[in-house]
Specification:
This is Aminopeptidase N. Its EC number is 3.4.11.2. Keywords: Aminopeptidase, Hydrolase, Metal-binding, Metalloprotease, Protease, Zinc. The protein is of the alpha+beta class. It is 41% helix and 20% strand. It contains 28 helices and 31 strands. The strands form eight sheets. An eight-stranded mixed β-sheet has the order 6-5-9-3-2-12-15-14, with no helix packed on it. Strand 17 and strand 18 form a beta hairpin. The longest helix is centred in the middle third of the chain and has 20 residues. The relative contact order is 0.06. Bound molecules: O-methyl-L-tyrosine (0A1) and zinc ion. Zinc ion binds next to helix 3.
Length: 884
Amino acid sequence: MDIASRPAEPAENTQVADAAPPPHSPPVIRREDYQPPAWLVPETGLDFTLGIDAAGITSKLKVVRNPEGSGEAVLRLNGDQIAPLAVRVDGAAVNDWRLDGSDLLIDLPGAEHIVEVETQVNPAANSQLMGLYASNGMLCTQCEAEGFRRITFFPDRPDVLSVYSVRMTGDKAQFPILLANGNCTAQGENADGTHWAEWHDPWPKPSYLFALVAGDLVANHATFTTMSGREVDLNIWVRPGDEDRTQHAMDSLIASMKWDEEAFGREYDLDLFNIVAVSDFNMGAMENKGLNVFNTRYVLADPETATDGDYDAVEGVIGHEYFHNWSGNRITCRDWFQLSLKEGFTVLRDQLFSAAMGSEAVKRIEDVRVLRSAQFPEDSGPLAHPIRPDSYQEISNFYTATVYNKGAEVIRMMRTMAGPMQFRKGTDLYFDRHDGEAATCEDFIRSMEEGAGLDLTQFRLWYSQAGTPQVAVTLKHEGTTATLHLSQTVPATPGQPDKQPVPVPLRIGLFNRDNKEHTGEQLIVLTKASDTFVFEEFDHPPVLSINRGFSAPVSIEFDRPVEDLVFLAAHDDDPFARYEAMQSLVVQHLVAAVSGALDEAARAEGRAAIGEAFAAIVTDSALEDLMRGELMILPAESYLAEQMLIADPGAIHAEREALKAWLGREYAQILGALHDRAVAVLYSRDAAARGARKIKSQALGYIAVGNNAEGARRAIAQYRAADNMTDRQGAMLVLASLDVPERAEALADFHSRYEGNALVIDKWFSLQAGSFHPGVLANIRALAEHPDFTMTNPNRVRALYMAAAVNPKAFHDESGEGYRLIGDLIRRLDPINPQTAARFVPSLGRWRRIEPVRAAMMREELQKIAAEPSLSRDVREQVTKSLG
Ligand code: 0A1
Ligand code: ZN
């Protein structure tokens, strides 16, 4: 049947806004337009005939009218680039179906029917990596958010929960392993060389959690006994040859399962848990019920090929996906506006897990660094949105640092205000009350109010308002009274010109300068636009430590003497606050330097204060090296730019590098000694050895900027002696930025040593694209032509181009070449993989906060993209908003 000739119906989808969109602009979906589904699908049967370039799918849906729905007789099944090859209702072929855009509409007379639809897809041609696609000869699926509709017609929305039974048949030699959600209930072989398997998942789930994998895979197998004594089979499936790099992932999975029982009382609910690693994947991983699909980079790790940071990322992502089994799968989202319900909560859970597995203090600092470098700029730019957005055009664009990381911070604030025990009562109530449901953020908030005993009336503003609150602080001392004055503003963001004050929970301490102790930490909650807090019995002006542990995701404006920051950097007992003092010291100095406000004397004075604190950190024998390594990191250029209304990236880069060089020269001796000490520590995975590796590369970085020759000497020695990827990459990072002969030697060695190992070759691309080498831009253009580069693998694209987009020296080069590089990429990548292409737009979208000459060039690139006639919905939405 010729689908194109069928008359198209007007849009009836209840999730689509009625307002006519401007030409080219995809329709706007609004949260307020939510309607319950007209039809439910209690049971879904799927029969797959598998092939790399042709896969046939027959769906069999039991559909029942939703008593809470609109009562419409028409069944709307979403589709995307698929055609209905045959449609049957209650066993009989029907022809009077029609298409509305990509959706299939079928009129159904009764209250309950069996609907069958046949479709066919080409997995090998699926370069978007959404739906059913081929990766390295295997077949796998990605359905969140709206990929299921690229496989078969279905009410592809998260509030339609169904019990799935899946049958698949494929060539046994090509696809020896056949996996889907739940448990394998039957399998067998056919005479023609094919085999088949049937899988049944007893837990009702939305279509976005469906998964299927078929390929030549081997497993690392283990078992886990749950708290009620059930034995669960665990498998991590990888390509043959990769199995030796899966043990850390397996250890992390077992630790996650145990931790979720202890920390949240959550037990796993199937007899089998499968993880599959695939090399072509748009995101980090996916929490499909009982069958998580992972980007290889969050599964494979061994000391030779993975850094300590990679090990931590594997642990964190394995935990994250596992925790989704409750926060996401058992309780899912009613609609995609509620995404932070599962993502914000699950990020908080994975953060708490990683903190419990390692150093709580270091983890907190790392999490705040991510928030500030990725989320704060988002919140102050054209793409700012609340953690629960009000509208979207393409939901893939809303898997953001705001929904994930700020979402986690918002729930963390509830935990801070309630205390961990009460918070646990709130989460228990939430899990109990909403198990099996598609819930909303409001449901979560209510459970917290009732279970944890919080009044969150005003707090709800954190869900509805975008923008990072700014809290201005002053502290006065008179007689024996210290008076703390706080005032807050929440900046205007697109579509939200006026904001109300939000509750800001601040953990504070007031230090006595003499005995270096504080009077006991307190939690104060600023609820008004401004307020005053009075503290008695201070004979001398105390030193204020505020927002300890980063208790609120706000930016603090506190103009205070340098000596107070030096004091806190040396003495604060809250590790985050100590880090924060060091960061503020540097930020204050660099912001002044960039704005030209420092004469030579002031510059020398500022440097001396930073140097004093820096030297104290480098030499403090009471500090653990992991923490020392954190404290030594200078604020990122993107974070420095955030501190300025209009930033000059060139000046920021120059001043930050100059400070780094000064520290490297001024403290050459103690940095050299630190490097020597760290070099002597043998490889192990314990905290002391990891700490040694962290400071080794930190020290090397300073030494090299201060003295290129000495840096190159130490770096090449470290590179040659390296018996692990942390040291090798640390040395390579330094060499990649230096214009020295050792650079070429190390890069060539690195490539030939790891040829064929995709994840390490990704590092080889990133190291170069992220370097501060004078020829970095020409090098990136050349790397794009390298035989190992491909536009069809998202990891490789990100390795080269995301490294370039976040490299301030390359991206903001005054020629504009960095902007053109990213603009060209977006236009070339969009037809291949729009989701990944759209992720590059925000870097250009920051033009309003950049000095005018560069801003004009950034804008020009956005305009060139906008002029493309056939942009994807993903890129179109981001570019339009960025220009807006
Ligand atoms: N739910 C996943 C994230 C995810 C979202 C979309 C994807 O499509 C390509 C893939 C993964 C998580 O939070 O881990
Ligand atoms: Zn998630």
